[in-house]
Design a protein that fits this description.
By secondary structure, the protein is an alpha/beta fold. Helices cover 19% and strands 24% of the residues.
Length: 262
């Protein structure tokens, strides 16, 4: 009950009483919580070999365990840390920065802010979140709360984009949406803890391989999320995000199960 009591404070609208749970989809469900229905939305892509495109693919190999005769299954899994929906820890670009294992759970849950730039992306595949986009969001919803995760919803489907990459004109292949370096000081001033994207990189495609956003953001001690799913189904404000990652020592990143609650 302690966890439920905490959520009733953190998630707007929490209160007493009972509510009936509703059926959902595989990536969205509702649960009763103190007189209201709490929506749980999965922001995670299933991790398959389609995602692990460089420098090595996901590998799942069966190994023998002591319970094999009893029907026990056991696998050895190998993948690059930054595969699928995943967390970038500060150490990804800061050798002395926090690893995934160093991040306390208090830094992995917080308000979710979703900034929709899908209209901009339809006009320009290389569109970026700029200070004006943050100003527009704050005019509608108020100041970005401290310790928030600010997520870019661009309408990007990373797997579909990988499949059609070869058919794009050469001038378009390096383009993908992302955060601008110009917006980072504003987000840091607001006390934002993390940023997230539905693309494969925090940086826009044309900013690579310099990675200015990765460098500035992660070296400030903050984290990032890449290849998020379902951001178009999350509310612009009023939600919470929880980043589930195993606290592996020295890891610079890790596939994550990212969940929004609202």
């Amino acid at each position: 009950m302690l966890a439920l009591s905490v959520l009733s404070v953190l998630v707007p609208g929490g209160g007493g009483g009972r509510a009936k749970a509703e059926a959902g989809t595989p990536d969205m469900t509702t649960r009763p919580l103190h007189g209201r229905n709490l929506t749980v939305l999965d922001l995670t892509h299933k991790l398959t070999r389609a995602f692990a495109f460089t420098p090595d693919r996901l590998s799942v190999q069966a190994v023998d365990g002591s319970g094999k005769a009893a029907g026990m299954a056991l696998n050895r899994i190998s993948f690059v840390e930054h595969t699928g929906t995943h967390l970038d820890a500060p150490r990804h670009f800061a050798p002395e920065g926090a690893s995934v294992g160093d991040l306390p759970v208090s830094e992995l849950i917080g308000p979710l802010v979703v900034i929709d730039i899908s209209a901009k992306v339809k006009a320009d595949r290389g569109a970026r979140i700029m200070p004006d986009d943050v100003a527009d969001w704050e005019r509608q919803y108020g100041p970005i709360p401290a310790d928030a995760c600010v997520a870019m919803s661009s309408g990007w489907d990373p797997l579909a984009e990988l499949r059609r990459f070869g058919s794009l004109p050469p001038t378009e292949r390096r383009k993908s949406p992302g955060f601008s370096a110009e917006v980072l000081p504003l987000l840091i001033a607001r006390g934002v803890r993390g940023i997230g994207v539905d693309t494969l990189s925090l940086d826009a495609g044309e900013s690579m391989p310099a990675f200015p956003v990765h460098q500035a953001w992660l070296r400030s001690g903050r984290w990032g999320l890449e290849a998020l799913a379902n951001l178009n189904r999350a509310p612009p404000s009023g939600g919470l995000v929880f980043v589930g990652v195993p606290p592996i020592e020295a890891a610079t990143g890790m596939p994550a199960r990212v969940v929004a609650l609202f």
